[in-house]
Design goal:
The chain is an alpha/beta fold. It contains twelve helices and 13 strands. The chain has two domains: 9-30 and 259-355, Aspartate Aminotransferase, domain 1, CATH 3.90.1150; 48-255, Aspartate Aminotransferase, domain 2 (3-Layer(aba) Sandwich), CATH 3.40.640.10. Helix 3 (59-69) runs parallel beside helix 9 and helix 11 packs across helix 12 (342-355). The longest helix has 26 residues, at 257-282. The chain is globular, with a radius of gyration of 20 Å. The protein starts with 8 loop residues before the first helix and ends in a 7-residue tail after the last helix.
Length: 362
């Protein structure tokens, strides 16, 4: 199991000898607006639910997500986060040759290796802003039976247009495409649509409530696919894998669809404004800011700086950012920063510029 995920505030606090609350976590890709309004209060009124077992298959949560996505409930499976599906995919699909489109989330690789499968990689290039070349990707699909693809991608923030991705899946019906849409809710619907409604039986969508609604600790994720594919994954699911409070939270989202839409719209407006400011402020420095469709940005460091050194410099200021050296296809020349509130975003820019030898007055 990889130990290099973002968000390890406790470990950094131990290193610095401070309380975890003193650390500003800009390494974990959670909605900068926080948890959706009303959700915490709803859960506080449902704490007695921990006294009884949750629904064994999370059926209520399934219905809620199906309604939000506009799909039939029989196409949805609930799990303890999308990670659960990543680690069971190769077994459920009986995969033999797996291609991972990267640089991307490392758990796809670990999920393959758990089943003694060594995946192959298709890596986008920095010169292209890490936008994958779909013509080259189509060629690389020869002989593959399963593909992991994150859209928008983590950590690069790159978004493949829906029409292009749909065409790729249609042209390769014998390849199972596992499309991780954990960060798609951060993208306005006018700019991209979920493939959960595409109707292709070779497309498997992973959909998360953790990041966009600010509830990663509850561990709730969903798989959307053809009912026959859902049944194959269901064989590998443990009973009660979605806890009572997670099911309550998802039910709350399903019962407040108008509020969900308003929260998403507010998020999109905020991200557009703060992302633009971040780009402008970092434009004077020695950093390369790669375009992103999400709440986080991949930064390329100058040749005389390493990710470890920059992360250490930021940690001294009580900021935790993501060292991207352990992403396959990246190196010690990359870090990732997630947006927070406006004042925090401005502060981290100052510290980043200082860490690479640039001052705001330069």
């Amino acid at each position: 199991m990889i130990q290099g995920h973002g968000g390890n505030v406790v470990a950094l606090a131990e290193q610095l000898g401070c309380r975890p609350e003193a650390i500003i976590d800009m390494s974990s890709n959670i909605n900068p607006l926080g948890t959706m309004p009303g959700l915490i209060e709803h859960l506080q009124g449902r704490l007695d639910r921990i006294r009884v077992l949750p629904e064994v298959d999370g059926r209520g949560a399934v219905r809620a997500i199906a309604a939000l996505l506009g799909v039939e409930p029989q196409r949805v499976l609930a799990g303890g986060g999308t990670t659960q599906f990543i680690y069971t995919a190769c077994a459920a699909l009986r995969s033999k040759r797996v291609l991972i489109v990267g640089p991307t989330y490392a758990d796809y690789t670990d999920g393959c290796r758990v089943h003694d499968i060594e995946p192959e990689f298709f890596l986008a290039e920095a010169a292209a802003g890490f936008a994958p070349d779909l013509e080259r990707l189509a060629t690389a699909l020869a002989g593959m039976d399963t593909v992991f693809l994150c859209n928008p991608n983590n950590p690069t923030g790159q978004l493949i247009p829906t029409s292009d991705l749909l065409a790729l899946c249609r042209h390769h019906p014998d390849v199972r495409f596992i499309i991780d849409e954990s960060y798609l809710p951060f993208v306005p619907a006018s700019e991209s649509e979920s493939l959960s409604r595409c109707g292709l039986d070779n497309v498997i969508v992973l959909w998360s409530v953790s990041k966009i609604f600010g509830m990663p600790g509850l561990r709730a994720g969903f798989l959307v696919a053809d009912p026959l594919v859902v049944d194959r994954f269901r064989r590998y699911m443990q009973p009660w894998c979605v806890n009572s409070l997670a099911q309550e939270a998802v039910g709350f989202l399903g019962d407040h669809r108008a509020e969900v839409a308003a929260f998403l719209e507010q998020t999109h407006v905020y991200l557009a404004a703060e992302g633009r400011l971040l780009s402008e402020r970092l434009g004077i420095g020695r950093l390369t800011l790669y375009p992103s469709a999400t709440s986080y940005f991949l930064l390329g460091l100058p040749p005389d700086r390493t990710a470890a050194a920059v992360c250490r410099a930021l940690a001294e200021q009580r900021f935790l950012i993501r060292n991207c050296a352990n992403f396959h296809g990246l190196s010690e020349r990359y870090v990732r920063v997630a947006l927070k509130d406006a004042a925090t975003n401005a502060a981290v820019v100052r510290h980043l510029l200082a860490a690479v030898g640039t001052t705001p007055e330069a």
